[in-house]
Amino acid sequence: MIKEKNKAKTIEPSLPEEVAEAIDEMGGLSKLDGAIPNAKEITAEANLHHILSDKTRLTILYSIGCCDMCPCILKEYMKISDSRLSYHLAVLEEHGLVTSYSKKNWRIFRITEKGKTALAKGESFNECLPG
Prior knowledge:
This protein is α+β, with helices and mostly antiparallel strands.
């Protein structure tokens, strides 16, 4: 248990030894604030995870990450309706994970750096999961 004492956070002596030692090694609980993202960054990351928690959007993002694509290819590959695809592409584009450009009568989507970073974070997270 963590207690506040004179506005300084101290460690309850009944903590497991390895936990108390780890907190001491990092400089105490007061150092935790500098070691994790601030509230605004946590909110932004939670929103990103919410966007990517949808299997359809994640599949679209991985697909566009392989190469630029027009909706007709995504629709055929994913076997989804125009309206469903349009909705998910709009969400990804609104949040800066993909961008689009027009070429004659075609609308072509490409992944952004933010989208690449989001996929890379997911892949590194998956490496941490047990087998």
